[in-house]
Design a protein that fits this description.
The protein has helices spanning 2-20, 62-67, 74-77, and strands spanning 24-30, 36-45, 56-59, 80-84, 92-101, 105-114, 117-126. Helices cover 22% and strands 43% of the residues. It is α+β, with helices and mostly antiparallel strands and 130 residues long. It contains three helices and seven strands. Strand 4 and strand 5 (92-101) form a beta hairpin.
Length: 130
């Protein structure tokens, strides 16, 4: 009986392990500068056959910022996230604002959710060119 339960558990673990940790957030590439509307792309990793409707990306919660002793500035609530899966070899998340960003650097958390998981990753970007 114990051997059967162990085998069943191992089979279930293998069946679901591909989806549990499949999706990830990669590096961010900033496409705008200081005093311009913010525009950047974050690489999406290992999305597999998920659709854009199954992937939710948003700014981290106030609690997540507080847990990391980070300030959740008002500007971060203005960030808009759009999943872009048109190029399945290079999926990404487009991050934008409508207003110009006057801060020389941003330090924010991004929350990614998909049907079988969730993760939070921090990003620091410099908008002022040296």
């Amino acid at each position: 009986m114990k051997a059967r339960l162990t085998a069943l558990f191992a089979t279930l673990l293998l069946a679901f392990s591909g989806n549990l940790f499949a999706v990830g957030l990669g590096d961010i590439k900033v496409e705008s500068g200081l005093n311009e509307p913010f525009r950047a792309r974050i690489a999406l990793l290992k999305v597999g056959d998920l659709s854009d409707a199954e992937i939710l990306v948003k700014i981290g919660s106030e609690q997540q910022f507080a847990e990391r002793k980070m300030s959740r500035d008002y500007l971060y609530t203005r960030l808009r996230f759009q999943v872009d899966l048109q190029d399945r070899k290079n999926p990404s998340v487009l991050v934008t604002t409508e207003e110009a960003v006057k801060e020389p650097s941003l330090d924010f958390l991004v929350q990614l959710e998909w049907p079988s998981g969730r993760l939070v990753r921090g990003y620091t970007v410099l908008l002022e060119k040296p």
